[in-house]
Amino acid sequence: MNVDVIFAPASTQVEPARRASNTIPIVFAQHADPVGLGDVASLSRPGGNITGMSMLLTEISVKELEILRETLPDADRIGVLWNPTTPSHPTAVKAVEAAGEKLAVRLVMAAAGTVAEIQDAFATMSRERVRGVLVLSSPLYNAQSAILAELQTTHRLPAIFANRASVEAGGLMSYGADLNDLYRRAAAYIDKIFKGKSPADLPVEQASKYKMVINLKTAKALDITIPPTVLARADEVIE
To answer: Which of 53, 133, 141, 239 could disulfide-link 79, Cβ–Cβ 3.0 to 4.6 Å?
Structure first.
């Protein structure tokens, strides 16, 4: 169709878009690792037909694990739900595993690339007697917030997510980049490209706003007391 711009929100969509065209500008809004996955040459000078906004998934995921560990101080075993079809997840998994060693926590890695596999993964983590779950940010998981919240409740496994929508759906807590801010900034980049700018010259901008949201109703249902030190850092509390 020879469109003017392809908007590909995350690495999951950028990969097929890149295979489809090396000339049509491609703009992303929440890419986890654009340099590491080879989608841009560097953050300051992307150099090709791809640019946009980035969130540092490896750092966010490690921070989420730290927050979950602080929230569940007695938890010595934590599950990690990750998606093998999300290009940035293998790198994030390595970072989380390293963090788990420092925190003296045994991690149970559960891979899920479909809705059915998500259900199987929670069943596996429940059998492994994990005390909480870290859900790595993925387009699939973001789209299945209600199912993930339901599984969290069914298996009584308090979970931390990367976005607020998951907490609104009933998840215990979230920490991550402000996606609304990133998408607005990506729209501004698309506007610049419409006006003649080349994506090669538009530097990849990183997330600058992060939010932590806690659902106290869910905490009560799971019989969890959020430590005051964690509650005090929350940007929003859902009651």
So the answer is: 133
